[in-house]
Amino acid sequence: MAQLLATGGTAVVESAHQARVGGVLVGMGGVGKTQLAAHYARTAWQQGELDVLVWITASSRTAAVTGYGQAGVELLGAEEGGLDNGGPERAAQRFLAWLEPKPQQAPCRWLVVLDDIADPADLRGLWPPSSPQGRTVATTRRKDAALTGGGRRLIEIGLFTPDQALAHLTSALARFGRHEPEPELTALAEDLGCLPLALSQAVAYLIDTGSGCRAYRDLLSDRTRALADTAPDTLPDDQTHTVAATWTLSLERADTLRPAGLARPVLQLAAFLSPNGIPATVLTSQPALTHLTGHLAAAGPVTAEQVQLALGALRRLSLIDHSADRPHQAVRVHQLVQRAVRDSLTPAQRHQLARTAADALLGAWPETERYTALATALRANTAALATTAEDALYEPDAHPVLHRAGWNLGESGQTTAAANYFEQLTEATTRHLGPDHPSTFTAREGLAWWQREVGDAAGAADTYAKLLQHQLRMPGQDDWSIFATRYSLGHQLGKAGDAAGAADAFAQLLEHELRVLGPDHAHTFVARQELAWWRGEAGDAAAAADAFAELLRDRARVQGRDHASTLDTWHCLAHWRGEAGDAAGAARAYGELLDGQSRTLGPFHPDTLSSLDSIAHWRGEAGDADGAAQAYAHLVDARSRTVGPDDPDTLTSLDRLAHWLGKAGNAAGATQAYGELLEARSRTLGPDHPDTLTTERNLTCWWRKAWGPEADAGQ
Fold first, then answer.
1. Residues 6 or more apart from 623 whose CB is under 8 A from it?
2. What separation in angstroms does the CA of 490 have from each of 299, 465, 516, 644?
3. Backbone angles phi, psi at 681, to 5 degrees
4. Which of 144, 119, 110, 105 has the alpha carbon at shortest distance from 22?
5. DSSP alpha helices (H): ranges in 390-437?
6. Which residues pair with 332 in a beta bridge?
7. pLDDT at residue 612 is higher than 70
8. Taken in order 553, 555, 559, 563, is the CA torsion positive or negative?
9. What are the φ and ψ backbone dihedral angles of 246, each rounded to 5 degrees?
10. The NB-ARC domain covers which part of the protein (predicted)?
11. Beta strands 321-322 and 153-156: pairing type?
12. Is the pLDDT of residue 636 over 80?
């Protein structure tokens, strides 16, 4: 402060030959404006820089006029400066006139401090004059434009930085021989939001009570205790208000500004949200406007424009920071201001405001996410609300915004965080509402979903098992919902490696669906297919093949031979016949599947070509080398047409063709195929690639088999 006023900075003149202008210290209650002004005044007086020092408490016009009048009596005498000579206003004007520089008189170096200006209008006509020898310092919580008139400059006084707060706590405690661990003091500074007044009173409390820093932090975090309970019995440093009471007058004043009566309910709503930034759309959402209208019922519905005016009033009283250029973090409220506001509410008011804040967040949440910053801010505000609202968000049920925040977290790509979130939400709903409450069930559904998305199949299976237990325990549950849970349980058990458990789960699903839907329903067929598949995965390939053969007949009868589901079952039948050791049966099944796919998908569809590949494979496994070679020849031709002769799949098929030509005794054909493959791989992979070198060795082998042991593959 001294440096700012001495060098011009934001407040005063550059040199003594210019008229000095006033500096107005602006900031929220508790940042130390008065202490800073007092320190500056005391230092200037002690260093002999002043002839006259006047300190006036300017909390009202009457107080300012009285202060000027009293100064006039002391400086000018009772006869000239007294109140009897024209009343208080005239006395104040005579004193201000005396401060004006006069050429015939010796210079008088003066400083006037106007402390705690409550309303700039109170000082209309009462600001000290500009003077080469005079200076003025004012303190206020207001940020009105009127404060900068007459060349005055605002000096924003903010919070301590974390380092400054730590240094203050350390040195203040050390003066009393107290030393606390630095991590605890750092955490205490953070808990108090680095507010100087709160830090000072915390030190006084620790000294007066002998409590430790950790105990004080526990007291501060105890939400059953009011903020006033953390104040010392005797306030330090001539302070007149506790932290809890320091903003009361500011809020009362803000509530009188246009639109009268709206600032307080707006701040009450903001007190439950994030101190680090509330999106403007939350406080102007329809649920918020409906709630605020209840406080101004006689004035008609509250509009978004009126809310903006109320935010402006709160900003003018330094109760909030309001920045329109940061729409997703437009409103910031110090955490202790929020705490003090919440402490002033009745339990019923706290409950209503918490639910309203949740409604407002939900009302501001867009259906389609376009702005990541907005979603992040809404989640942060939901997290803050969950902390400040305590039980209110679970009475009478878990508020939907709790679920919305979790799903939004996962949809933003933070799947692990979403799984952790829903795990905590499930624990919270269970604790508040019980394991069988619908809100608990919904939270557990979210947990299972995101466990599945993150790849925690075992965790998801366990969660689905609990969901199923809940559904079977509660009467009147929807069969379709139970079907879905049983299906997800079986699927996740299988993914977790428990094939037998998956088969059991699908067996129970099948029994349920047979009872409710009948044997020929599409969902029943799906359950049969999953059961057969997981029996195969559990080690009984023959039983799986038999089950798929039976299911294939039923699907063909009900859905038709060329239905996509029927073709899928055909594929599974062929697969498990092969796994059961029936290579010939697998080849036949793939052949029948190939016919159906050729009719429905076309001969060159990727699925059709995949079946042709399987036919060739199982023919070879069945001992039919000629048949395998013929199938691979068709596959090479088809893939050359569709994806090109140099595609990796085409070259793999050409490799298999050469292999089975050789196995069929056609060494010359194998030599020709390996020659074509070597040329293609040399061109696409390079001559030194491992696959190219392997092909070269195979070519040499079959060349010698075709032309004799003395043949040279290079000729």
1. 583
2. 60, 9, 19, 41
3. -70, -35
4. 110
5. 400-411, 415-433
6. 321
7. yes
8. negative
9. -65, -25
10. 25-167
11. unpaired
12. yes
- Give the pLDDT confidence score for residue 9 in this predicted structure: 27
Q: How far apart are CA 453 and CA 459, in angstroms?
A: 11
Six-digit token string for 330: 């437009």
Q: How far apart are CA 578 and CA 586, in angstroms?
A: 5
CB 64 within 8 A of CB 122: yes
pLDDT mean over 107-121: 87
Task: Classify residue 298 by burial, with Cβ atoms within 10 Å: 0-12, 13-18, 19+.
Answer: exposed
Residue holding tokens 């001969």?
603
Using alpha carbons only, give the angle 173, 179, 185 rounded to the nearest 5 degrees: 80
Tokens of 621: 């496994």
**Strand, coil or helix: what is 590?**
helix
CB 632 within 8 A of CB 638: no
Q: Could you read off the pLDDT of 281-301 as tens digits, one per residue?
A: 999 999 999 999 988 766 789
Q: What's this model's pTM, rounded to 2 decimal places? A: 0.77
The 3-class secondary structure across 279-334, one letter per residue, is CHHHHCCHHHHHHHHCCCHHHCCCCHHHHHHHHHHHHHCCCCEECCCCHHHCEECC
SS3 51: coil
Tell me the C-alpha distance between 33 and 250, whole Å: 15
Q: Please give the radius of gyration of the chain, using alpha carbons only, rounded to the nearest integer.
A: 41
CA distance 657 to 631: 8
How many Å separate Cα 86 from the centre of its chain? 65
**pLDDT (0 to 100) of residue 400:** 97
User: Helix/strand/coil (H, E, C) string of 427-460?
Assistant: HHHHHHHCCCCHHHHHHHHHHHHHHHHHCCHHHH
d(CA 643, CA 656): 17
Give 332: exposed, middle or buried? Use CB within 10 Å, 0-12, 13-18, 19+. middle
Which single residue is written with the structure tokens 């108090």? 192
Cα 283 to Cα 327: distance, rounded to the nearest angstrom: 11
SS3 state at 84: coil
Which two tokens mark 271?
């007190």
Q: What is the DSSP letter of 103?
A: T
Residue 666 CA: distances (Å) to CA of 160, 662, 670, 673: 88, 5, 6, 11
**Residue whose C-alpha is closest to residue 639's, from 597, 674, 600, 610:** 610
- Do β-strands 321-322 and 331-332 pair in parallel, antiparallel, or remain unpaired? antiparallel
Tokens for 308? 């903006």
d(CA 309, CA 87): 38
- Beta-bridge partners for 114: 56, 138
Confidence of residue 500 (pLDDT cuts 50, 70, 90): very high
Residue 276, token pair as written in the block: 């680090």
pLDDT in tens, 192-244: 888 887 787 778 778 888 888 898 888 878 867 777 777 677 767 666 667 77
507: number of Cβ within 10 Å: 18
**pLDDT band for position 454 (50/70/90)?**
very high
CB 155 within 8 A of CB 26: yes
Tokens of 550: 């039976």
Q: Span 169-184, mean pLDDT?
A: 88
C-alpha count within 13 angstroms, C-beta hemisphere, residue 612: 27
